[in-house]
Amino acid sequence: MPGENLSRDEARERAELLTVEGYEVALDLRSAVGDAPDGPRTFRSLTTIRFRSARPGASTFADLIAPSVTAVTLNGRALDVAAVFDGSRIALDGLAEENVLVVDAQCAYSRTGEGMHRFVDPEDGEVYLYTQYEPADSRRVFANFEQPDLKARFVFEALAPEGWTVWSNGAGGQEADGTWRFAATEPISTYITCVVAGPYHYVTDFYTRTFDDGSKLEIPLGAMCRKGLAKHFDSDDVFLVTKQGLDFFHDHFDFPYPFGKYDQAFVPEYNLGAMENPGLVTFREEYIYRGKVTQAAYERRANVILHEMAHMWFGDLVTMVWWDDLWLKESFADFMGSFSLAEATRFTNSWVTFANNRKAWAYRADQLPSTHPVTADIRDLEDAKLNFDGITYAKGASVLKQLVAYVGRDAFLEGARRYFKRHAYGNTRLGDLLSVLEEVSGRDMATWSRSWLQTAGLNSLTPVATYDAAGRVTELAVLQEGDELRPHRVAVGLYRSEAGALVRYARAEVDVEGQRTVVAGLAGSERPDLILVNDDDLTYCKIRFDEGSLATLRAHLGDITDPLARALCWSALWSLTRDALMPARDFIALVLTHAGREEEIGVLQMLHAWAQSAVVHYAAPAWREEGGRLLAEGALHELRLAEPGSEHQLTWARFFAATATTDSDFQLLKGLLASSAKIDGLDVDQELRWSLLEPLASHGIADESAIDAELARDDTASGKRHHVRCLAARPSEAVKAQAWAQVVESDALSNALVEATIAGFGPPSQRELTAPYAPKYFEVIERVWAQRSIQIAMDIVRGLFPGLQDDERTLAATDAWLTGHQDAAPALRRLVLEARDDLARSLRGQACDAAAAAAR
To answer: What angle do CA 255, 258, 263 make, to 5 degrees?
Structure first.
């Protein structure tokens, strides 16, 4: 991995030297099928790059990661491959003003989701290919200059096995000689080029738009998946959301979709949620649902579809110069995903999901030792890989939501329109966007940017109210805490109980600045039962409560009628728990008391995840068993109360399975699997069957033969992943040793099966069984980082950290590794530092919970 890194300084120097005019890439993919060869399975990649040099005679390098290179020719001159190719770079000396580089290489198919991924479907033996490059893996497929600011036009062609179809960014098809050829792209970056090939199931549709000037835009639409998933593929809904998104962005961006066709490929073993390749967006195939799911799942998929579509403008049309400004695409896409979802689709409450789900990700990331400004300092590609995080996505999107409140919706959208027109097909930095926003809004964007984009961390906002003898508000102020005191445009809402409901009766917006800000407009209001700072979720902050409001929430949180306000309160209470300001058992009591009334299914699913985390990580160890039993009892109670056949029933069923602890719990799970027990309206489909089976496996009730029998019922790619996870979850020393060896000591498993094995390795009920692997973890992670691909290394370092060994000894071992490995790769140290912070936070939470129990 270290030899494959690229520094920002190297990229800047190369960009100053080169202008890339175009690529012609020819791939021979016929080797994807047939018997496995000795050594890595490879394909031929023939690349021609036309580029100019600002300094004739200068030297530079092209990027390529390949097992072998057959020939390299520069300006008609054959180069000595052994002398110029080191496994990741091709040295180029004596450049002319106009240059032609031709590289003939054997590139390797991937099993890690990086580069050209090859997947064999266990159901029918069919082979499927797709590419995934971000941030720098196109060099695993063709020779190039792998950095975002060296844009060029790309022409792809491919030879494929008989019966296959091939797709790329541009429109194309198979010609008489059997070659698939595709139209040249617009100028784009290397990391968003794409090839998908195989016997995919493919569905088509069409989008048309007539603009005010009478011009007409026609966009061919396509959607594809593996043949084995075709019966589950609801392409009509995918196309519906796609058309709604295209309408929304055309209405607001005043720049027609610039990349011709719009294909969407749902592909197997995908590392990401999706990738915004222009003209050929790729998604993880888990967005095709094999069983019954809730509306929250469909909302998530729609959000991802719209997020990637927003990238066609923010990221593809206009691209950041370097990964420092990754937020210029990801923050905007994350914000625009929720914005368009709420205004253009059936998911009108998407801002509730954003407040409760996406921002929770951001709040966690912003309190880690690795927190960074939204505009980050990205020294190299390893830094870039790790910065696809909650800061870049969710905090950046939250800051943009604050920006819309700050400058106004109309000014924000007009700024976007000017930005696209000014910088189309180019690359930008922070200042390019700020200048246009300042131009349209009249606001001082430099000051705003310094506070929100160029500093890390988050603020806490706490209400402080005084009252007169009659119980009316005399003054309400907002106190701000944090290392950087930022300007916040916030709404403050006052709530009171009316006929069993907790409703807002007064609201005021205010610009919070400095440590203390008085809220004008609320003096004289009746004394509230609840004061909600950041009502309507306009800014990015931790919400705190006064004592009276906290008491109201303990008793009446479920009475809040507004779903966004309710979600904000839940999120704030979880923040208090993570910050060791509320005992974990109190948060669990709130969930058990009020979650059954939660109407928003996405919020309910988050509450279930938080409640499990509270028991596993933040509850005092002596109370864990009791807390887990209470959750299981509460889940079963709500499951039996839920409307038959409803999505709430399904959600409570999954939560019950995840929290089951007693013999009677397990008997019910076994009965549901065997159809000897029934819950009215609950359809135990194949996906739910795996959810019921996993806890039985992890508690030693379902053995290998039972797990194998379930695979026989579901002998598919999805079934194989579930099977591997359940096998790894069994409570056996031999099972853990085998799982560890398969993930750490071998690279035989694909990325998806590595992920599944890690997911099954350490259930919370097996803390003692996995304890011996804590010292082994610190012995192997530096070797893993050096030898494995960065994606697999990240999965191992994050997934196998001994966080369940939550005592001071593990914390000390982590500190000892960090002290003794100061020269380890910065990205590796970052991952360990983040895990250490989570562990220390768990210990503080446990101490808080234990102290509260002792005091009662």
So the answer is: 130
User: Residues 325, 328, 332, CA angle at the centre, nearest 5°?
Assistant: 150
Number of Cβ atoms within 10 Å of the Cβ of 446: 12
**Which tokens in the block code for residue 205?**
């549709």
> What is the three-class DSSP state of 90?
strand
What pTM did the predictor assign?
0.95
Instruction: Please return the burial class of 470, using the count of CB atoms within 10 Å of its CB with bins 0-12, 13-18 and 19+.
Output: exposed
CA distance 71 to 780: 38
Positions in the chain short of pLDDT 50: 1-2
Peptide bond into 826 cis (omega under 30): no
Environment class of 37 (CB within 10 Å of its CB; exposed 0-12, middle 13-18, buried 19+): exposed
Separation between Cα atoms, residue 320 and residue 134, nearest integer Å: 13
Cα separation, 815 vs 826, whole angstroms? 15
Q: Which helix (H) or strand (E) holds 78?
A: strand 77-79
DSSP strand pairing (195-198 vs 127-132):
antiparallel
In contact, 165 and 178? CB cutoff 8 Å: no
Q: Which of 243, 238, 193 is nearest to 217 (CA)?
A: 243
Write a three-state SS string for 304-326: HHHHHHHHCCECCCEEECCHHHC
Residues 486 and 515: beta-carbon distance below 8 Å: no
CA atoms within 13 A on the CB side of 639: 26
Assess contact for 332 and 314: CB atoms under 8 A: yes
Please answer whether residues 153 and 144 qualify as being in contact, where contact means their C-beta atoms are separated by less than 8 angstroms: no
Tell me the C-alpha distance between 528 and 139, whole Å.
61
For residue 1, the one-letter residue type is M
The pLDDT of residue 2: 43
Structural contact between residues 543 and 532, judged by C-beta atoms closer than 8 angstroms: yes
B/e letters for 331-341, b = 16+ CB within 10 Å, e = fewer, are bbbbbbbbbbb
Q: Just list the catalytic residues.
A: 308
Among 584, 492, 490, smallest CA distance to 541 is for: 490
pLDDT at 3: 65
Tokens of 118: 């090859």
CA gap 635, 625 in Å, rounded: 15
β partners of residue 51: 20, 99
Joined together, the tokens standing for residue 770 give 């996995």
Q: HSE (CB half, 13 Å, CA atoms) of 832?
A: 27
* Among 362, 364, 549, 541, residue whose Cα is nearest residue 461: 541
SS3 682: coil
Query: Residue 380 phi/psi, 5° resolution?
Result: -160, -175
Contact (CB, 8 A) for 183 and 220: no
Residue 709, C-beta contacts closer than 8 angstroms, at least 6 positions apart: none
Taken as a whole, the chain contains a residue count of 856
CA 313, CA 290: separation in Å to the nearest integer?
32
Please state the separation of Cα 512 from the chain's center in Å: 31
Cβ-Cβ contacts under 8 Å for 783 (sequence gap 6 or more): none
Q: Considering Cα of 519, then 524, then 530, then 535, what sign does the dihedral take?
A: negative
Helices (H), 76-233: 81-84
216 to each of 185, 186, 210, 261, how far by Cα in Å? Answer: 21, 20, 4, 15
Alpha carbon distance 113, 61 (integer Å): 26
In contact, 390 and 361? CB cutoff 8 Å = yes
